[in-house]
Amino acid sequence: MKKLLFIISILIFIKVSSQTGSYTSREIDSLVISEGGSQSLMSIKSEQRQKEWQKINRNYFSREIAKYKLFRTDLIVEELDGKKNFIFTHTHCWKRPLGCSYITSSNKFIVHEW
Fold it and tell me: What is the DSSP letter of 106?
């Protein structure tokens, strides 16, 4: 019986998450890389999609994390040994009376060029 309830809860979770079209932050950045484009365009696309994702999923974040809103996304592209390294850095701001408190997260991808 417990296994059946567990399987049903997983199926419900998958159905709900597929309806919202939610991805993780890392998946969003991976999709942006696969679409290609200039470095500045990729960081803009990532930032827009990250903000949209954050709005959709705000209710699923803990209280402490939900306070922060995406402030800026930077992208660094390096080429080492025939491999491109894409590093997305997302800076989040929690507006407080005396300024912002910041947290950052990074997603790094290594792409082999053939």
Answer: E
Per-residue pLDDT of the chain (114 residues; tens, 9 = 90+): 545 444 444 444 444 444 444 568 888 898 898 888 888 899 999 999 999 988 888 888 888 888 889 999 999 999 888 889 999 999 999 888 888 889 899 999 998 765
Range of the domain at 46: 32-112
Kindly state whether residue 23 falls inside one of the protein's structural domains: no
Using the Cα atoms of residue 36, residue 87, residue 54 and residue 45 in order, give the sign of their dihedral: negative
Q: Helical H runs in 21-106?
A: 25-35, 39-57, 63-66
Which run of H or of E encompasses 93? Answer: strand 83-96
Residue 68 lies in a domain: yes
In a domain, 90, yes or no: yes
Q: pTM of the prediction? A: 0.72
